[in-house]
Amino acid sequence: MKLLLSTSNEDKTHELKSLLEPLGHTVYTLKDYGLKIRVEAKGITFFQNALLKAQAVSKVVDIPVLGDESGLVVPALNGEPGVYSARYAGEIHNNVANIQLLLRKMENITDREAYMQTVLVLMYPDGQYYYGEGSARGSITRSRRGFNGFGYEACFIRRNSKRLLPRRPLSKSNRSAIVCRRSTICSEKSTKTLAR
User: Closest Cα partner for 157 from 140, 180, 173?
Assistant: First the structure.
C-alpha cells in the first residue's frame, strides 16, 4: 500500500517508516508531496487528534493518509500530560521544560505508574477511516536521567526494563513510542486495514 504520513515531525516519520516499510508499504512524507500543513491538535483525546491530522491532509491528496497522535499518560496526575504532552510546559516540543514540570508535579507522589499511548488513524480518499491504538507501560523516575531520547524518554522506564531507554546507544528515537506504534500497527484491526 502507498500511504502518506500526516506529520512533519522527523522522529515520528523515521519511526513510522521503519515499522511500515518492512511490511511492504511505500511511505511518503509531506515533504515528498511539497506540502506544508500544520494541524492544530484541538481534540481532547488521542483519537480525535489523530483523526484531525489525517483529515487535514486527506483533503488535498488522493492516497491513504496516516495520522498519528502519541503522548504520556500518568494516572496519578489525572491523565496528565495526555494530549498536551508536547506542550505540557507551554512551549511546544520543549522536552526539558516538559520533563521538569512533570517531575515537579510528581515530587511527592509515590504512585509513579505511567504509559505511553499511541493512536493511528488511516484515512482513505473516500473519507472512510480505520484506527488502532497501542501503549507501552512503565513508570516515571525521580529525576531526569540521560539525554539521548526525545519526549519523556529521559524520565520513563518501560515495564520489565531495568534501564532508561535514552541511555541505549542506538539512535535518538523514542523507543517507547516505537513500542506503542509497533503494537498499534500490529493490532488485528490495523493489520486488516493495512492489508486492503
Answer: 140
CA distance 167 to 154: 8
CA distance linking residue 3 with residue 25, whole number of Å: 7
Pairing of strands 65-73, 129-140: unpaired
Is this structure's pTM higher than 0.90? no
pLDDT of residue 182: 59
Cα 122 to chain centroid, rounded? 14
39-87: pLDDT as tens digits: 888 899 999 999 999 999 999 999 999 999 999 999 999 999 999 998 9
Q: Which residues contact 70 (CB under 8 A, 6 or more apart)?
A: 12, 46, 85, 116, 117, 118, 119, 177, 180, 181
Q: Provide the 3-class DSSP secondary structure of residue 136.
A: strand
Q: How far apart are CA 91 and CA 100, in angstroms?
A: 13
Query: How far apart are alpha carbons 122 and 127 in whole angstroms?
Result: 10
Amino acid at 64: P
How far is the C-alpha of 63 from the C-alpha of 75, rounded, in Å? 38
